[in-house]
TrEMBL record:
Pfam families: Peptidase_M78. Gene3D superfamilies: 1.10.10.2910. InterPro entries: IrrE_HExxH, Rad_response_metalloprotease. This is IrrE N-terminal-like domain-containing protein. It comes from Thermacetogenium phaeum (strain ATCC BAA-254 / DSM 26808 / PB).
Length: 257
């Protein structure tokens, strides 16, 4: 029985004596892996032959943070002993969705998330309920994308929170904390959400969390229940990342107003 991807990510950081943000070029050098950028039919490849290994990433990837996550994803394939294929072809939908239905790709994402954003370090920084400002700060510190950072924070927090990614007006994926009690609606965004207003009418998104009806985002809730939406747009990619919060009742007045 194999150990978890998080275990292997922590083990590699320990072996390499890493703290804080990771320089993936140096990591690859120390692991005798060469990194290339080429025109590809996928997001990235890991190619292993004997004692040699190469990571090839798509040269059309426009964001450095996305390149880093792809490299860390391929490192996961290389390092985890039960990932034994000589060639891994990793598609954008597997790496970017954070919920691939291909087991080894999902595990490589989990490895990358922990290797780039170590839980033991982030937990020390989670001193208040998460919000977009906190995620931006962590993203800057660790050199990671906002989506990867948000997913990691949601995994670690005890708060009732979820991160949702929408593209072209449709919810593509979500991740929720253990305490978040609802399932998120998939498919087209509800017209009561601020994310919908951005896609449908080009409206600017509010800079602070806004109260909306929970049924606009979640399944199995009554019309009376409310939730807080904090959304951030990436116009060049035509996507919106949303944090959904359910603050504890006794904290609502102090935290949200």
């Amino acid at each position: 029985m194999s150990l978890s991807p998080v275990f292997y990510a922590r083990q590699l950081r320990h072996e390499l004596k890493l703290t804080g943000a990771v320089d993936l070029s140096l990591v690859a050098d120390r692991m005798n892996i060469r990194i290339f950028e080429e025109a590809l039919d996928a997001e990235g490849y890991l190619i292993q032959k004997g004692k040699e290994a190469r990571i090839i990433i798509n040269n059309n990837i426009g964001y450095e943070t996305r390149k880093c996550f792809t490299i860390a994803h391929e490192l996961g394939h290389f390092y985890m002993p039960h990932h034994q294929e000589s060639i891994f072809r990793c598609l954008a939908r597997d790496i970017q969705s954070y919920c691939s239905d291909r087991k080894l790709e999902y595990e490589a994402n989990e490895f990358a998330g922990e290797f780039l954003l170590p839980a033991q370090e982030l937990e020390k920084r989670l001193l208040q309920p998460p919000n977009l400002d906190m995620i931006k700060e962590f993203s800057k510190i660790y050199g990671t994308s906002l989506t990867a950072t948000a997913v990691k924070v949601v995994q670690l927090t005890c708060e009732k929170i979820a991160v949702v990614l929408s593209e072209s007006g449709e919810i593509k994926w979500f991740r929720k904390s253990e305490s978040f009690p609802y399932w998120i609606n998939k498919g087209p965004l509800h017209e009561w959400t601020y994310a919908y207003d951005f896609f449908s009418a080009g409206k600017s998104l509010p800079e602070t969390p806004q109260k909306v009806q929970a049924m606009a985002w979640c399944q199995g809730v009554s019309r009376e229940e409310l939730i807080f939406e904090e959304s951030m747009a990436f116009p060049n990619l035509n996507i919106v990342m949303t944090l959904l919060y359910i603050p504890y009742e006794e904290e609502c007045d102090a935290f949200w107003w």
